[in-house]
Specification:
Blueprint (H helix, E strand, L loop, with lengths): L1 H20 L8 H9 L4 E4 L6 H11 L3 E5 L3 H13 L4 E4 L5 H12 L5 E4 L1 H4 L2 H9 L2 E6 L14 H4 L1 H6 L5 E6 L4 H11 L6 E3 L7 E7 L3 H11 L4 E5 L3 H13 L4 E4 L5 H12 L5 E4 L12 E6 L6 H8 L9 E7 L1 H12 L4 H19 L5 H6 L14 H4 L9 H13 L6 H8 L5 H6 L15 H13 L3 E3 L7 E3 L1 H7 L10 H7 L10 H18 L3 H4 L2 H10 L4 H5 L6 H22 L19 H10 L4 H8 L3 H13 L17 H14 L5 H6 L6 H14 L1
Parallel strand pairs: 1-6, 1-7, 2-4, 2-5, 3-4, 5-6, 8-13, 9-11, 9-12, 10-11, 12-13
Antiparallel strand pairs: 14-15
The structure holds adenosine-5'-diphosphate (ADP) and zinc ion.
């Protein structure tokens, strides 16, 4: 009976996923989190931006009888989410300072009459006595705390009122609590746990790898031209250009506007109304590009941002991860380009060195070094990026960064150029930066050169054949290769290393990437293997539909949905239902107008529907992770081996194996025996408990055993139990 009921719940969640949300599969951890909430366990959910955190409380909210309360710090986000819920036919309301008294009262009435599934509130609203009294008078089944890092003083967005939520929570002891954040640092997580009284066993930590983001770094030679080049490759796509200063924003904006790009600026120097208008136009797809300082982005939930370009170096790896993370929330491939120059680094280092506070100075230098290491790395970009957050990542070729996707570009012999460069450094006494060395090599007639008499050196002008830009790229390559190092003092002078000397003597060849080869492969747009003409037609329709309801276009349909339609040309209701993101409600609301467009387009162009359920070209054609792990495990690797060789956490392996079993696969029990409790009597008791309570939830088993086996142990025993079935 019990088993049946719990199995029904799992099936029910999948039905909701498809019928209401229009999605075929859960993302990693979503299903586990949902079932944990449904079984009454608190959870700390850590997922990167776009990982799909909201779904983790939205689905339980549709199953619970009582209300789900979502605390959210940003009014714009609340509105966005409520709009999205309404588009899906879900009763959701928000209560915060942005609404009128009448709207507020209507909302309260709806809650009293149990007409609402999800209530979004601002923390200060939740803390009001009247709100607490209201909630106490109805059944609250779940309290979800979004952006939970606001609880922590270590977070980037500490909000004192957030810490008080814990007290409200105490007043609702039977309400399950879910804290959600995209903050990756353990210190912040620990703070959240402590404040809410969670234990580590309530953690659900997803991978921070954003596999639909393509990371690219280019030497910054002619930044504006490089930007324009990049934008031309991303025609008609939405994106953000980040730059360091307001002045830069204005300059880039002016240049792009002259070239008739659809662009607006955003920085703290603009008036509130200008900023608001520009942001609004961007959200509504009326403007494609925003040039901004880092003031832009907080609370932007636009899902179809296709690129993020860093015109200048970001502040830290964390900042870079967060800023690039605004691209591709909808899971569609998106590109992040960083324009990188040694002179930028040099400038920043100079500013840092001016700081008087020694600790602060050291912290900034460490952050800068991590960034330099990221940019200089010749290996997969994901390795330094993801491991920075303490997550193991060891896949050598991700296929989605410049270093992995542009193979063969490293094969060039650049020994001669290296020798010229090194001997020029030597002859100028190791006192100058790369810019000066390059000027000497290229035979510049500047005063600085003649002033030092460097025009008389034998190396003067010997590198004339190569462009300045190419030399800059080479200089970076030499630093990367460890032939020279740049002094961190104020002039950035280059010094020759031991390795550099052996290259000069001809004992060691040098090969590497040069700007030329890099530029050749440089920018690739989002692969266009869907029908882009139909995409444009649908996009226009989407804009129209969205304008009529006064919501942003991505709330009506995500880009991924449009791409799916433009790949498969659905022409019947059944076919349209199989499209990503189209559930019952959207089908009813928009199905007719979409089908009309697709049908007439196909008739005009002699196209047929591709109704077979092929995954869209943009989805990774890779085997899902849990299947990979399951196969690896079944092929004879023990859990410990997988942990070590693939760098995957034990808890992740176990939850993936569990999912593998749930998919109907079986696993070998042999690889588990070493992890089982040594005490056979305990094992027998655990197995008997699973017999009684089924394996869906661990809590009843845990309770029956009175805590002598912890959840980690029970997870392993459950796998063992299932492996024998
Ligand atoms: P987060 O809050 O973690 O940044 P969201 O909850 O906004 O992410 O989800 C990002 C996007 O992914 C949303 O458009 C959401 O509807 C979509 N999404 C969530 N879960 C799934 C899923 N299982 N399959 C497909 N899309 C999903
Ligand atoms: Zn890579």
């Amino acid at each position: 009976m019990e088993i049946k009921m719990q199995q029904n719940i799992t099936v029910h969640c999948r039905e909701i996923l498809k019928d209401i949300f229009g999605y075929d599969d859960f993302r990693p951890l979503q299903e586990e989190i949902i079932s944990s909430a449904l079984s009454g366990r608190d959870s700390l959910v850590v997922m990167p931006t776009g990982g799909g955190k909201s779904l983790c409380y939205q689905i339980p909210a549709l199953i619970f009888q009582g209300l789900t309360v979502v605390v959210s710090p940003l009014i714009s986000l609340m509105k966005d989410q409520v709009d999205q819920m309404k588009q899906l036919g879900i009763d959701a309301i928000l209560l915060n300072s942005s609404i009128t008294r009448d709207e507020y009262n209507t909302g309260i009435d709806m809650i009293r009459n149990n007409k609402v599934r999800l209530l979004y509130v601002a923390p200060e609203t939740l803390l009001k006595n009247e709100m607490i009294a209201l909630l106490a008078s109805v059944k609250v089944d779940c309290l979800a705390i979004d952006e939970a890092h606001c609880i922590s003083e270590w977070g980037h967005d500490f909000r004192p009122e957030y810490r008080l939520i814990a007290q409200v929570r105490k007043k609702f002891p039977t309400t399950v609590c879910m804290a959600l954040t995209a903050t990756a640092t353990e210190r912040v997580r620990a703070d959240i746990r402590k404040n809410l009284g969670f234990t580590e066993s309530s953690d659900f930590i997803a991978s921070f790898n954003r596999d639909n983001l393509f990371y690219r770094i280019m030497p910054k030679n002619h930044p504006l031209e490089q930007t324009i080049d990049f934008l031309n490759k991303h025609k008609d796509e939405s994106g953000i250009i980040y730059t360091f200063s307001r002045g830069n924003v204005d300059r880039i904006y002016d240049s792009l506007k002259k070239l008739r790009f659809s662009v607006r600026p955003y920085h703290a120097g603009l008036s509130d109304s200008e900023r608001k208008e520009n942001q609004e136009l961007f959200l509504k797809d009326e403007v494609q590009i925003i040039v901004a300082t880092i003031a832009f982005g907080m609370g932007i939930h636009k899902t179809n941002v296709r690129f993020v370009l860093h015109f200048d170096l970001p502040k830290s790896i964390e900042a870079y991860y967060q800023e690039t993370g605004r691209a591709g929330r909808d899971g569609v491939k998106s590109e992040c380009l960083l324009l990188y120059s040694y002179s930028d680094i040099h400038k920043i280092r100079y500013f840092i060195n001016q700081k008087t506070d020694e600790t602060e100075k050291q912290a900034s230098l460490t952050q800068l070094d991590a960034l330099v290491a990221y940019a200089d790395s010749g290996r997969c970009r994901r390795i330094p990026l993801i491991t920075y957050f303490g997550e193991p990542y060891s896949i050598e070729n991700c296929g989605m960064c410049d270093n992995c996707a542009d193979p063969g570009e490293s094969a060039e012999d650049i020994t001669t150029q290296a020798q010229m460069f090194l001997s020029c450094i030597k002859r100028t006494g190791e006192k100058f930066g790369a810019g000066h060395i390059i000027d000497v090599l290229r035979g510049s007639r500047s005063k600085k050169i003649t002033g030092f008499g460097h025009n008389l050196l034998p190396t003067y002008g010997i590198g004339r054949d190569l462009s300045k830009a190419l030399w800059q790229g080479l200089a970076q390559e030499f630093i990367r290769n460890g032939l020279v190092f740049q002094d961190t003092g104020s002039y950035g002078e280059l010094r020759i290393t031991g390795k550099g000397y052996s290259v000069m003597k001809g004992d060691e060849p040098v090969s590497g990437k040069t700007t030329v080869t890099r530029e050749k492969h440089s920018v690739t747009g989002t692969a266009a293997d869907y029908d882009s003409r139909l995409f444009e037609i649908l996009r226009e329709k989407r804009r129209e539909l969205a304008a009529a309801e006064n919501v942003p276009p991505y709330v009506v349909f995500s880009d991924k949905t449009l791409i799916d339609i433009c790949t498969r040309y659905p022409q019947s209701i059944e076919e349209l239902t199989s499209i990503h993101g189209i559930g019952t409600h959207k089908m009813q609301k928009y199905g007719g107008s979409i089908l009309t467009i697709v049908k007439s387009y196909c008739a005009e162009n002699n196209l047929e529907s591709k109704s077979v359920q092929v995954p869209s070209q943009h989805e990774h054609l890779k085997t899902p992770r849990h299947v990979q792990i399951g196969q690896l495990y079944n092929s004879g690797s023990s859990i410990t081996e997988i942990e070590e060789t693939a760098g995957i956490k034990r808890s992740t392996i176990i939850s993936n194996l569990n999912k593998f079993i749930q998919d109907g696969h079986s696993i070998k029990s042999a690889g588990l025996t070493s992890l089982l409790p040594g005490d056979t009597e305990l094992l027998t008791r655990i197995i008997a408990a699973f017999d009684r309570h089924s394996t869906e939830y661990l809590k009843p088993v845990f309770e029956e055993l009175g805590g002598i086996a912890d959840y980690d142990m029970l997870q392993i025993c459950r796998l063992y139990y299932l492996s024998r079935e």
